[in-house]
Amino acid sequence: MAEVTFHPLHPWALLPEKPKADRAGARAERDAYQDSFRYLRIPRLPADCPPWVLGQELGWSLRSPLTLTMRPLEDIGLAVPDAEDPQQVGRRLGGQRMFQRGKDWIATGDASWLHLGDYRTPTGGWEGMFIPNGQGTVEWRLGFAAQIPPGTFLMVMPPPTPCVPGLGVPVGVIPAKAVNAMADRGGMSIAVQIDHPVPIHRRQEIARIVLLHPDSLRATAHNSTPTASATTPPRAAAAEAHDAPEAPHAAEETR
Fold this sequence. Notes:
This protein is α+β, with helices and mostly antiparallel strands and 255 residues long. Helices cover 20% and strands 28% of the residues. The protein contains seven helices and 17 strands. It has helices spanning 23-36, 50-56, 86-92, 176-181, 215-218, 228-231, 234-243; strands at residues 5-8, 60-63, 68-70, 75-78, 97-101, 104-108, 119-120, 126-127, 130-134, 137-141, 144-147, 153-157, 167-168, 172-175, 189-194, 198-200, 205-212. The strands form six sheets. Strands 2-17-12-14 form a four-stranded antiparallel β-sheet. Strands 9-10-15-13 form a four-stranded antiparallel β-sheet, with no helix packed on it. Strand 5 and strand 6 (104-108) form a beta hairpin. The termini are far apart. The model is unreliable at 247-255 (pLDDT under 50).
């Protein structure tokens, strides 16, 4: 059985949790309707449907490590010539805040809320929990590291039942080598996109991670075309056989 290990890198981090469907609570609610109300009933419980339960309990829940209001981010990608100062370029472009990502820069307008997640590092400095990631997305550092088996993958996805309207989580698949290396680069992070101001609370589920076997990415599908006999109803096939002209008899042997 594959094993996954999570460990915190900072005291504020919340480790992923295994979700659990509250089937007992759902059945108690159904019984209360039946015992107490004349007309209202819950005729069918999702909690009694095994595929639904497996979907709800899939993977591990990622939870917000702090409480704040996230706001939409308008950004633009820029190149800063070697002879120019990035901050002066930002001021020249109307007070844009400049964030370096690789060789290029991302300029944003009013993004002061990004600094609400600045946290102290073990060396005493400050790091940003939220970093512009381009195309309106934000990299969200969650303060923990994950260790998954070599050759596997970790898929980041929205929760099965989105509980944070306005907070988008792009689906992504990360190979084990990259996941395990995140421990030395600030820990696990996900990308999010904010459509409108969204209040987020500590311990609120924001995303889901799922361990993938390599076969999940290598699997192929083959579509088979049904034969005519398989697609023709039995009665229609019999009628066609009855109406068909008789096959010519073999020529009789002459003597």
